[in-house]
Amino acid sequence: MGTVLSISPATKKASIMDAEVAAGDGPKNDKSLKRHSMFVSLSWKKLVANSAKKSAKKVTPNPVAPVRELPASQVAQLNNENTRKTQQTEEKKPKAPIPVPVPKVPTQNSEISLQNGRLSTVQKQPSSFSLVSPRRVVIQASTGELLRCLGDFMCRRCYKLKELSSGEVVLWFRNIDRTLLIQGWQDIGFITPANVVFVYLLCQDAITDSIESSSELQGAFQTCLYLAYSYMGNEISYPLKPFMIEANKDVFWETSLTIINRMSPKMLQLNADPHFFTEVFQDLKNQRESSESNLDR
Fold it and tell me: Which residues make Cβ contacts (< 8 Å) with residue 271, sequence separation at least 6?
């Protein structure tokens, strides 16, 4: 078999150059090398120039299209559509809640204090002159004074009981309080100015002028005392025996529930509203003055 040998032009040129080098032709080698390098540099410059032209053709930006002016009718229509879309978007948004003014509880112009067993309230009444400080009205009363006022109220309310005295009503109250202390049902006495005002509030509703006997009055009065002890007392519970008498045994709980249903709002208000407490306190204190001016009961 034969062998075929193919020689490319580059290989031929390379063999010729090798032959010339082998022949020892030094100057010719230098000229050929210079021509070869010149040819390479010219070819490189031409290649760079061609690539630059191609990149310049590729980077050419697209021409900006001229802005077309819309007619006035179309502009107005677009504005209307944008306005309608904006309104629809705002309607879809959750609306903020409208602030509602909260009523404020007016401050009470009264102060209540207990010093040395005397209950005192100070009422500040507005003066007619704006530059003058409010006028202070001081109301004071001790426990004994309020008890006598309570007894006077009971005597005047139950005018049918000619034999009733203010001291008898006070004695009923003190006997119950003493019994609870002796039997150990309470460690501190219940009779204080504030508690006497509370008892008076209940008696105003429960004690009526239709009472015709002393035992009936004592039963109704001691029912009020039981509710006052249960509501205002220092202990968790109190026994029924000191408060309940035989004449009032059958209607004790019925009377208690009736008083609770009618007087619960005022009982809460008396403890929460100093102004209301001052009014009841002043009313109780006035019972003593009314009884002195009406001696022929």
Answer: 277
Name residue, tokens 């100057």.
27
Task: Please report where in the chains the tokens 């009444």 appear, as a residue.
Answer: 125
Q: Does the pLDDT of residue 107 top 50, yes or no?
A: no
Interatomic CA distance for residues 189 and 217, integer angstroms: 23
Give yes or no for a contact between 134 and 125, defined as CB atoms under 8 angstroms apart. Answer: yes
Q: What are phi and psi of 118, to 5 degrees?
A: -110, 130
Do 211 and 161 form a contact (C-beta atoms < 8 A)?
yes
Count of CB atoms situated within 10 Å of the CB of 128: 6
Average pLDDT over residues 265-282: 94
Rounded Cα distance between 191 and 174, Å, is: 8
Domain ranges of the chain: 141-293
Q: Which residues pair with 122 in a beta bridge?
A: 111, 138
Query: Which CATH fold would you assign to the domain 141-293?
Result: Cyclin A; domain 1 (1.10.472)
pLDDT, one tens digit per residue, over 140-151 is 889 999 999 999
Q: If residue 137 lies in a helix (H) or strand (E), which one and from where to where?
A: strand 135-142
Helix axes 274-293, 143-157, angle to 10 degrees: 60
